[in-house]
Amino acid sequence: MPKNIKNNTLKEILDIILYEAPSTQDEIADKLNISRRYVTKLLKPLIDEDVIKKAYVVDLKKFNEISEMYETDYSVPEYSGEYFIKEMLKEMGEQISKQFAWSFEALKNNDVDLAQKALEEDLNTNHMYNKIKSSADAVISLDPYFEFNNTIMFNEIAYDMERIGDHICHIPKFVIEENKEVKEPVIGILEEMYETSDTMFRKAVKSFLKRDPNIKEKMERYEDELTNLQKLAIKKISGQMAKDDINKNNSTFYLILFRVVKSFERIGDISIEITEATTQFYIENQSNLNSTHFKYLNKK
Q1: Residue 233, Cα to own-chain centre: how many angstroms?
Q2: Which residue would you say has higher pLDDT here, 286 or 123?
Q3: Which of 128, 136, 202, 288 could be stapled to 92 by a disulfide with Cβ–Cβ 3.0 to 4.6 Å?
Q4: Could you read off the pLDDT of 58-88 as tens digits, one per residue?
Q5: CA distances from 188 to 18, 180, 185, 212, 282 (A)
Q6: In 210-291, which residue ranges form alpha helices assigned H by DSSP?
Q7: C-alpha angle 199/204/189, rounded to 5°?
Q8: What is the pLDDT at residue 266?
């Protein structure tokens, strides 16, 4: 491949592979409104050189080695391994937030179809997690400022996010299996739990991406609020159980509803774990951070 090929299309294809986790070349072609044959033609040299691997995973070390061949007028001035992985984590965070929003909306409206759709989104969440694991393995060789513990940290954050996706799944599963409306005042309390735990998750991810070591203090009030809401939800559900005629046909409704309450609490707990890891990681590594290494990221 000749050097300094100016190919905006190839850059766009690589961006899609890196950040959107496509499953097929047809999906890439549809996103860019080009033919699949043209996608194949542009990717073939990179596949032959193992820059693009199976399931469209980018080997970041080889990607960096050949990146000058397809520089464009709009390219990022430097291809940072940390920038790529953080973009993947950002996309994964947005994916989980969507999965969470659909799951609660299905619970609130007892919408079985939306619940099924939300449950299927967990497959995309798991796919993104595997993408990050595969790409992070190569990043330590990409950047002289990038240390081994950075790679471990990225994998840990991705794992925690994947765990949150698993806990979210309890919500649409409840809707599908029970297919029964959750009434007031319980659903109102659960909505507050959803809003609080969703805020905690979003702030946790943002704190890591923006390198905010002070986020832990900001999260404490959300944690207290979520704990109080959990106690209130358990009290109200127990009160409804006492009034209801419990039998073998409806006993699972309350048991699984308690699991849903626990899921909101666990999402908040894992979000706290992310913020604690963020605080420890950035404080311990502050002296090793190089300002030029983050010059592009800081412009975002």
Answers
A1: 27
A2: 123
A3: 128
A4: 555 555 555 555 444 444 433 456 777 888 8
A5: 39, 16, 5, 32, 38
A6: 215-243, 251-284
A7: 25
A8: 97
